[in-house]
Design the sequence.
């Protein structure tokens, strides 16, 4: 059988995430970013808006021909139309999940980079296309989809261990620090949660009506098969308690992209999501064969 390929598509919604969690996504008006060429996609959208200025969306850009992700910057107009697009961060290793946020008088990016063997924090330099590595965040394991939150006077970080497939998809770890650059202290209860249906982070952690809401992936049937809100009722140096909400429904306008969703992020006054379709075509198999032959020839 042809090897399956997840193809993702990103969308923006001009409503707050808290409102969408109550009313659902089925009838949400989504502005979908254009589809990519065959066997390429954009995923993991996170937004940042210049003070009084344009909306920028940072995404993982991935091509199955190279199997290497980079971070691209999409600049949108007031009507969400694409104004400009360019790569903004490329490393020797795969990059994805590019969270961008303001803190301590600077703008930061914390992308997923577990294939580097660590987690690197970047500071914005001369504008949103210029990122400079500032620090390495050291934890109790190599993290996947590490998600920061400033809460009750300190930084918290939610992440899954890259140790094995089971931990990537079904374990949740927590750490805390007084400063974003660390040092970071792993929670003594790690893993604080073991559940393939509601552990791997999937977007922006928010405080809604006094409760922490962490979007988490439901990977019971497939990676990124659905997204749930994880409501955290206790988070301190000795304890952790949370309850998972029901999987979020997919927007009616998702079309053929109805096989999963694995990001719900907030920034720049918008909510962003991504949805996927699974490709099992012979064309995808042929792409793998050509890539394998190319490596052999090299």
Sequence:
């Amino acid at each position: 059988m042809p090897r399956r390929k997840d193809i993702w598509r990103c969308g923006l919604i001009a409503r707050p995430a808290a409102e969408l969690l109550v009313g659902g996504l089925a009838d949400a008006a989504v502005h979908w970013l254009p589809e990519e060429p065959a066997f390429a996609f954009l995923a993991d959208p996170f937004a940042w808006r210049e003070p009084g200025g344009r909306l920028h969306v940072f995404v993982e850009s991935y091509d199955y021909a190279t199997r290497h992700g980079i971070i691209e910057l999409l600049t949108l107009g007031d009507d969400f139309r694409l104004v400009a697009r360019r790569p903004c961060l490329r490393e020797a290793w795969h990059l994805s999940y590019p969270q961008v946020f303001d803190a301590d008088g600077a703008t930061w990016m914390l992308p997923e980079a577990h294939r580097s063997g660590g987690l690197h924090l970047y500071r914005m330099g001369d504008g949103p296309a210029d990122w400079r590595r500032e620090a390495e965040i050291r934890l109790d394991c190599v993290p996947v989809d590490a998600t920061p939150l400033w809460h009750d006077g300190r930084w918290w970080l939610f992440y899954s261990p890259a140790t094995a497939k089971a931990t990537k998809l079904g374990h949740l770890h927590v750490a805390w620090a007084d400063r974003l650059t660390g040092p970071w202290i792993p929670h003594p209860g790690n893993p604080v949660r073991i559940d393939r249906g509601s552990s791997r982070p999937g977007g922006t952690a928010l405080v809604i009506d006094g409760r922490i809401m962490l979007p988490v992936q439901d990977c019971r049937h497939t990676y990124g098969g659905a997204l749930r809100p994880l409501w955290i009722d206790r988070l301190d140096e000795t304890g952790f308690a949370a309850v998972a909400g029901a999987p979020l429904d997919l927007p009616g306008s998702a079309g053929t992209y109805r096989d999963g969703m694995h990001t719900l992020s907030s920034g720049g006054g918008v909510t962003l999501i991504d949805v996927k379709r699974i490709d099992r075509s012979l064309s995808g198999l042929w792409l793998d064969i050509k890539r394998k032959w190319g490596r052999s020839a090299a």
Notes: The chain has a mean pLDDT of 95. Helices lie at 17-23, 165-170, 282-297. The chain has three helices and 21 strands.
